[in-house]
User: Fold these one by one.
Assistant:
Number 1:
Amino acid sequence: MNLREKAKILDAQGISRVLMRIAHEIVEKNRGSEDLVLVGIYHRGIDLANRLAKLIKEIEGFSPPVGKLDITLYRDDLSVVGPQPVVKTTHLDIPIDGRSVVLVDDVLYTGRTIRAALDEIMDFGRPKKIYLAVLVDRGSRELPIRPDFIGKNAPASLREVVEVRLKEVDGEDAVVIMEKLEKKEDKS
């Protein structure tokens, strides 16, 4: 798929700013950080969860544990993903029974990833509460899922892709809207 950058909606400073706001909102809504567990969804959700844990430590003096969730086998479209989907490892060694879990992802779109994450979380125990934190909410939901903490609302058309770039993975921090380019027909 050919894409071209249409607009940069967050730069490094903007991402830092919204993550700090989300960290404060999490602490406020949870009334502290003692029973909090952050769970990042592969891949960029994990990096965002680690950043949020550091920010919460700055605020509260306590860093909540961070788990890693791979929802590949919980997807409802596994047959569409391909015959050999790449499965990563879920690391959720933290007891979640009776605790507040914050699922962290980079972009919320249809809601299907979050539905799969909720299914998997429940296989690990019964949390007191599950919150959802996303860096970007692009809209166009297919399931009735709504985030509790949003860095940026960025409604995007079906011809657009919201691309989150993080320095841990991509070498830079940015959120850009990419536009899908039409394939030109060969008229020769």
Number 2:
Amino acid sequence: MDQTVSIVVPLLDEVENVAALYGEIRDLADADERIREIVFVDDGSADGTYDRLCEACAGDARVTVLRLRRNFGQSAALAAGFDRANGDVIVPMDGDLQNDPADIPRLLDKLNEGYDVVSGWRKRRKDAWLTRTLPSMIANALISRITSVKLHDYGCSLKAYRKEVIKGINLYGEMHRFIPSLASWMGVRVAELPVNHRPRTAGRSKYGLGKTIRVVLDLINVKFLISYSTRPIQVFGKLGFYGVLLGLLMGVMTVLMKVLPIWKGEDGQWTTMDMTGNPFFLLTFLFVMIGIQFISIGLLGEINVRTYYESQNKRIYVIRESFEGGDTSGVPSS
């Protein structure tokens, strides 16, 4: 059976762009029979985007237009589109005409080389260098280093995902930009392909430096989900162990300062130091208590992890494929 493709486009206040955007995607779908479905998601636009889009798409059975009750954010809009999409491959893209739909067949061809995710790379960006390009370069380097999934452009919305990959990921916050990293937990193969990036000609950009803090916080979350989501005691327990160890060292120093004459008094004579006036005495209790709290958090996390997986019958692994010895249909002939 031929591979089917769904295109998902989140939109926010893009009334000036939707007609032209739909026209480009329609022409591509007419020329490429793999594209069977187009899902537009209006993320609470207040400028008539939904009405203009419905007018443009009227009569095209391939198109579904979803309208969210309010502005939930790009991750939520993409999640709504992914849930509705039925294609074997799902291709998200921005609705501002900066992504070029003509690049989609190239992404699909790359995906068919054996990859599970193909990410677009805006190698020659048409954005302001100081406020958009430079922060993006720094963020991409940081994300690649922390998640160990090396990509030049995490922020490019134009990507191609196999359905089984994207359907297994729940999106929250600003997590949409981290999908390749989250998918890496499944052991997927990720490729990157340079794509065309066009300057914005109408409408207003929804991105800016204000999102930097949210991206950093989500990056911390992603790192935890990738490395420790099934073993939280490993991160919290380690911090707790170091805290208790440091507290014990402080305690030993306190005792030594009480027993040994290593403190010079006001009369110039070497003497011991009183424990109650020693700051290391207070630090002993502080670090020990912090260490115990971290260990307790790790144990509570372990309980929650087990509740999450066992109550929903979830698995802590993902099977790529399987083969039964009695089934000869999948065995290549010699």
Number 3:
Amino acid sequence: MTIDPEIEPQYVFSDRFPSRRVVYAQIADDSVAARNMPPVLIDVPYGPHPRERIDLFPGRDGGPLLVFIHGGYWRSQHKDNYSFVSKAFRGQGFSVAVVGYPLTPEQSLSGVVQSLRHAMQWIHTAGRELLPNWRDSIVAGHSAGGHLAAMLASDPMPDMPITGCLALSGLFDLTPLARTSIGAQVGLEDELISRMSPLARPAGAGWLIAAVGANETAAFHDQASRYVQHWSAAGSDAELLLVPDADHYSILLQLADGDSPVLRRVRIQTGVREESL
């Protein structure tokens, strides 16, 4: 499919946001520190692929579980740089699982989703032996990770309920992506788009927080707004959260601050109070 010069800059913009390098450097450093804060279980396998690994950060017994999925347009990034998410959430009593997965184009996008379904199955079986008991299971992700979290929330497995979905700068309709260089790299075709777009799938049964930075492109605002409407139309609890002064990269820092607007909203949804472990 031909690249559309109007759509391309709405989704391909890494050089336009100077915050990108600063944010990535900060979260990488913070992730190293988080991985050195016991108790921690690193690189626990949930499947045979070298990237099918999970890092576990146990929280308080009876607290919620956050399953975090990194972004990178399904073709880049690594879970190791997202351990930073665990610090603020553990401070609220959450257990945290940061999930790695095979990347495109080595793996198809549908294969990526299948890997993450295997990860959720592992978390709810073998993972229960390694984590405290949890009362809620929340899937969360940034950018393409927000898409993957939404895919899981739209089709929870039997006996593995997903209580909530937190998507930061998520992608919910892949149709415009097919007309960008990203779509060409990932291999987005008509049949795949229809199966892999959360907007074309059922809304989740739990709650949704779709957060988007005030300084993001119009396309990401549209994606978030339409997805919230999709959940609301199905009678589910859905909220569009506009994060002031944040762009597609700096919005990640919301996950590092226990008193950020995003964490405050998650805390309200899960009914937990801010306290240290």
